[in-house]
Specification:
Strand order of the largest sheet: 3-2-4-1-5
Order of helices and strands: EHEEHEHEHEHEHEEHEH
Shape: elongated
Number of domains: 2
CATH architecture of the largest domain: 2-Layer Sandwich
Largest sheet: 5 strands, parallel
Number of strands: 10
Low-confidence stretches: none
């Protein structure tokens, strides 16, 4: 990662939504940033920690509606890094968990721009935890698999992979990110893979935020239960650990 300039790009995980869940390292990066390039899912309250006069660049990154295409974001990071700036690329959750941080790191490495990765708390773990669902639990789930609920290329159909993972992880927890729009297809794929109709499933929307919502059901009824009630961003959790939700629901959202 050697570079002739003194610039550096920090790929920082902003955490799952609650601004208090950013890491100490991530916060320190923000406090010394010259440039912050941030996504929609990074809580805007975090920008209060950025020095006055720093350049703030909103690149959006909402499904199917990107303020700036990924290739342009890569070029922007390289440009600012080469200019000797301290750049924070602020991404929701963890930059390497479906955050395209790996693509940005590869672009920086190819350009010879120094970079560092600051991991963040992933919504795949935090949203279930705030809903009272441990993704692993002795005697219920000895593994957890994190799965993308959609593909960037619409021609790349993920249903066969969903079926394979569902069949292989019968004793574990499945966590789908970015899957609300494909919930009926995900449920159908799980059923084809042999998951029983009474398999517990939960959707947690806006996890860790005051307007968090949780809908719990089974593969037989979750599509109907969630219809009109849950909107992205949301995490889908499948497996026996969902049965603990009612007993362990500790977080009290401001919006029921």
């Amino acid at each position: 990662m050697a570079s002739s300039s003194q610039g550096i790009v920090y790929l920082v995980g902003a955490g799952p939504g609650d601004p208090d869940l950013i890491t100490v390292a991530g916060l320190r990066c923000l406090q010394r940033a010259d440039v912050v390039v941030y996504d929609r899912l990074a809580n805007p309250a975090l920008l209060a920690h950025v020095p006055a006069g720093a350049e703030l660049i909103d690149v959006g990154k909402e499904a199917d509606r990107h303020t700036m295409p990924q290739e342009e974001i890569n070029r922007l990071l390289v440009e600012r890094g080469r200019a000797g700036k301290t750049v924070v690329r602020l991404k929701g959750g963890d930059p390497f968990v479906f955050g395209r941080g790996g693509e940005e790191a590869l672009a920086l490495a190819a350009a010879g721009v120094r970079f560092a990765v600051v991991p963040g708390v992933s919504s795949a773990i935090a949203a279930p935890a705030y809903a009272g669902i441990p993704v692993t639990q002795r005697e219920l789930a000895g593994s957890v698999t994190i799965i993308t609920g959609h593909r960037a290329d619409a021609a790349d159909d993920p249903e066969a992979e969903w079926e394979r993972l569902a069949a292989a992880q019968t004793a574990g927890t499945l966590v789908f990110l970015m899957g609300v729009g494909n919930l009926p297809r995900i449920v159908a794929a799980l059923r084809r893979a042999g998951r029983p109709a009474d398999t517990p499933i939960a959707l947690v929307a806006n996890g860790t935020l005051p307007d968090q919502q949780t809908v719990v059901g089974t593969l037989a009824d979750i599509v109907e239960r969630a219809s009109g009630a849950i909107r992205p961003p949301a995490v889908i959790v499948v497996g026996p650990v969902v049965t603990l939700q009612q007993a362990l629901a500790w977080f009290r959202p401001a919006v029921a």
